[in-house]
Amino acid sequence: MISIEDALFKVKRNVNPLLKEDVKVIEKANGYYLYKDVISPINMPPYRQSAMDGYALHLHNDLHYKLIGEVKAGDGHEPNLKKGEAVRIFTGAPVPDTANAIMMQEKVISNNDTISIEHQINLEQNIRPLGEQVKEGDIALKKGTKLTPAGIGYLTSLGITEVSVYKKPSIAIVTTGNELIEPGQELKYGQIYESNSKMLQGVLYSLKFYDVTLHKVEDDYEKTVNLLRSIIKNNDLVLITGGISVGDYDYVGKALNELQVEEIFYKVQQKPGKPLFFGKKENTSIFALPGNPAAALTCFYVYVYIALQNMMERTDTELPRTQAKSISKFVKRGDRPQFLKAIYNDGEVELLEGQNSSMLQTFALSNALVFVPAEISEVHMGDVLETIVLPV
């Protein structure tokens, strides 16, 4: 059995970036990291652009201008303005080359074919210059940038339809146990509805990892070996829940051993989640998580999250941790360090009832995990606690 610190170190050291390129259509690239610099194919804006509704002017020394036309967004014609002439113009419209300033409409008095402005303005005022955001041939977004909805909108505005991104890992989730049945079926005596796979799939989806497959295997040694052999060969990350202990019908550990999976560690000095296994076979990382749902999810947030970030070249990235003042009491049983389900809000944290590793009801209300070291046996109100803020 190893410490939490050693387990974290071994995960970070043994999970390497995939460094594989993938090409995504721009609308499906949200949450991915750019594999290479994106070069702008155009100037943005692609023409001198009006920043507001008003009048485009060819400046002269007078405050009065002759109105010769109108330009609205999307117009393809370009009026030729002489000194002292103006055109009505609207936000986003192309500014004629012969106009050198725009006066906002609130400061203009219009009288048929003439206008009067309140005061003189500076050259190029209220005009967005050609290539103000980015110029043709320049880097629009650098390699390693995480694409967000704003980034997707920005690249789409440049006419870009697909991007080169870092491939996200393919992930297989395996659940074990004869007692598990799918929701929707009649629940018979001795059976429970299988929830771990949907829980883990849900958290992976929330983190924008979508290449996820679900598998179930009975408590049968040969079937466990055959299934694990196939999915380890065909995935970058394998998450197994249940069957990792040493009971008569726990076959996962024996199967991993037969498949020559390298054991990095097995069992961590913590609560919940003591029977955690982490290993590798070639380029595939394997986590055998505890079968108890709350323990499995805790181990995911503490360890699997880091593995996923390392695969995406976000080296050593953990969930954010902060110091928070406890507004509740807690008595810790046993001498293991413990992760407690909690609600964090504005520098304060509430430790919740129902910390059993099999119970998800409390986890469903939580937005944080509080870490209580081995040497602390009791938490008092006002104590400052290390708090892991969970992704929403």
UniProtKB/TrEMBL annotation:
Any Pfam family matching the protein: MoeA_N
Domain MoaB/Mog: 172-310
Keyword Transferase: yes
EC numbers for this chain: 2.10.1.1
GO cellular component terms, A-Z: cytosol
Pathway connected to this protein: Cofactor biosynthesis; molybdopterin biosynthesis
Catalytic activity line of the entry: adenylyl-molybdopterin + molybdate = Mo-molybdopterin + AMP + H(+)
Enzyme class: transferase
PANTHER family: GEPHYRIN (PTHR10192:SF5), MOLYBDOPTERIN BIOSYNTHESIS PROTEIN (PTHR10192)
Protein name in UniProt: Molybdopterin molybdenumtransferase
